[in-house]
């Protein structure tokens, strides 16, 4: 597979003090060894625990070309949000069979997630916003059809570290978990 992008991809490397030697990890190895990888100050421990607790490791090990949206620790500061992450929420963080790099992302085009099925339909949309001299990229999850646990609605999250290549696709670290509609319209507008 060849992807033409307008930016240089920084290879994923281990931090100098690491005793783990990880080369070309898949998305689950990325989650597993994230403390040993050079991903800046970002940590994904809470999300990794949820993936393991709900036995969703296989989604992150599946061969192919997928897009993985992984929330960082700061997104778990809300007291109720971590308890709301279940199997379907984890599915809503994966765009299967499509590798989406931010520079070439189909902005404004809703993409189906692994949580797009009969009883629950979750889409992800990429968009960017000019902020002075820089451009910020965001993802929006939209739950079109909810169920008794997952309310229909929209969740917005900034991509805090983009385009991390892994063996089975690309990882984007995001500010907060998607799919969990835990704010009302007034709170959403204040953010």
UniProtKB/TrEMBL annotation:
Would you say which domain of life the source belongs to?
Eukaryota
SUPFAM superfamilies per UniProt? FAS1 domain
Query: What protein is this chain from?
Result: Uncharacterized protein
Source organism lineage? Eukaryota, Metazoa, Ecdysozoa, Arthropoda, Hexapoda
